From TrEMBL:
This is DUF2157 domain-containing protein. The chain crosses the membrane at residues 46-67, 79-99, 105-125, 137-170, 176-195, 207-225, 231-252, 264-283, 295-316, 323-340, 346-365, 372-393, 399-421. InterPro entries: DUF2157 (IPR018677). Pfam families: DUF2157. The lineage of its organism: Bacteria, Bacillati, Bacillota, Negativicutes, Selenomonadales. Keywords: Membrane, Transmembrane, Transmembrane helix. Residues 15-158 form the DUF2157 domain. The keyword Transmembrane applies. The keyword Transmembrane applies.
Length: 431
């Protein structure tokens, strides 16, 4: 339920209690369930953002001032300065916990400064005594030492910085050690889940989940890139569909699906991947990697396809069949892979994906017209225009074939237009 709906519900509760429709205890339980509705969410978000940026600038400024005079300090003085900065940030965080626990701006600012001072102290002490020379070890240690700050101060900004830092750490690793990223992301997930449960309408919650979703895709690519050769497009098409279905079905948050990133990321990924797969050159490269598919790729693809199938069934039960056209992408890609196993030229697979994108575009335009939704019409028009331009300049297809296809499609659109005009005239005559 969105904020306006909650505000309306809160306005109705006193009358419902007075009329005896709802017991007072039930009204109080409803208020506790949905929590307070802050009418100044935008202002509070700006305060939090400015607080975090201010803390970052103060911390970075202190580091620059120290760097200017660092060479003139003795080792003991360097150690004293480094620890003093850390202790000062901890004292500030303790003061905020004691006196300003309910102020989001103070908590986020103090937490960000403390995280920055932890990294600065590690770097300064390490540089003085030559303790840490590996950047990956430094980054991982910094992130793990900052993790308690996420929960002690309930800080979304530190959780975001931790997630981004772990993503950078995963990008610089090779082999099985990259799989540790799932455990490192798992330890911060309770914080993200808590945001959804206790502060679901806040802009901070939406921003945090956007960052987490984007970082998840980067980590997934980094962690499994060596195992997906030959089946990468199938796996990612299924992953985008699972993400899209999570948003449409509200698996994560039933009443906030549009603000969270799942539908948008799944939709953008599905459309972008479909467009890429309409090029024949892509499928010729798939044919080269087809013989090197690892068992791990089959397992990952099977798990994701099962999730897509379960989500699609749920979608049909919820009568959201229009949304099913995007969830069909992994099955279309699977069919293209099957054709590819017999036709290594990639022509069959390319034709399947072109037909799918053409049908998807037309379906979206028809849906938009039917529902009087200009955004859906524009999305279908953009997809159709992109497909037409790509095929017009596609050097892999001969001029004759392209010409015939364009003429046939043009005739088809003109015929459809004539049919629609005659039906519309028929409806008017009936009226």
């Amino acid at each position: 339920m969105n904020k306006k709906a909650v505000e309306w519900l809160y306005q109705q509760l006193p009358e419902l209690v007075d009329q005896g429709v709802l017991p007072a205890e039930s009204a109080e339980r409803i208020r506790k369930y949905y929590g307070p509705v802050d009418g100044n969410t935008g202002t509070r978000t700006f305060l939090v953002i400015f607080g975090v940026i201010g803390a970052l600038l103060v911390g970075l400024g202190i580091i620059l001032i120290l760097a200017h005079n660092w060479a003139q300090l003795s080792k003991l003085n360097r150690l004293a300065v480094s620890l003093s900065l850390l202790v000062a940030a901890q004292v500030l965080a303790g003061g905020v916990l004691w006196f300003k626990r309910d102020s989001t701006a103070w908590r986020e600012g103090a937490a960000t400064l403390l995280m920055l001072m932890v990294g600065a102290a590690m770097a300064l002490v390490g540089q003085t005594y030559h303790l840490v020379e590996d950047a990956d070890v430094f980054l991982l240690t910094w992130m793990l030492l900052s993790l308690p700050v996420v929960y002690l101060l309930n800080s979304a900004s530190v959780a975001i910085l931790y997630t981004v830092g772990i993503t950078f750490w995963a990008g610089s690793h090779y082999g099985l050690s990259k799989q540790w990223v799932w455990g490192l992301l798992g330890v911060v997930l309770p914080h993200y889940w808590g945001l959804l449960k206790h502060n679901r309408y806040a802009n901070t919650t939406a921003i945090s989940w956007w960052v987490l979703t984007v970082c998840f895709y980067i980590c997934f690519t980094v962690a499994f890139s060596n195992y997906l050769a030959g089946l990468g497009f199938l796996v990612f098409s299924a992953l985008f569909s699972v993400t899209y279905l999570s948003g449409e079905l509200g698996f994560i948050s039933p009443d906030q699906g549009r603000r969270l990133p799942f539908t948008a990321v799944g939709l953008a990924g599905s459309i972008g991947l479909t467009f890429i797969l309409t090029f024949n050159e892509v499928w010729r490269n798939v044919a080269l990697a087809w013989s090197s598919v690892l068992p791990a790729a089959w397992v990952i693809a099977a798990v994701l396809l099962v999730l897509v199938a379960a989500g699609t069934v749920r979608l049909i039960k919820n009568r959201k069949r229009e949304a099913g056209k995007f969830a069909a992408l992994p099955w279309v890609v699977g069919l293209a892979y099957l054709i590819q196993s017999y036709d290594h030229s990639g022509l069959g697979a390319t034709l399947v994906l072109n037909v799918y994108m053409l049908g998807l575009s037309i379906s979206l335009i028809a849906q938009g017209v039917r529902e009087f939704h200009l955004g859906i019409v524009n999305l279908g028009m953009i997809m159709l225009a992109a497909l037409i331009v790509a095929r017009f300049f596609d050097i892999d297809v001969s001029f004759v074939v392209r010409g015939v296809i364009f003429v046939l499609l043009g005739i088809g659109f003109l015929a459809a237009n004539v049919v629609l005009v005659r039906r519309k005239a028929g409806w008017k005559n009936e009226k």
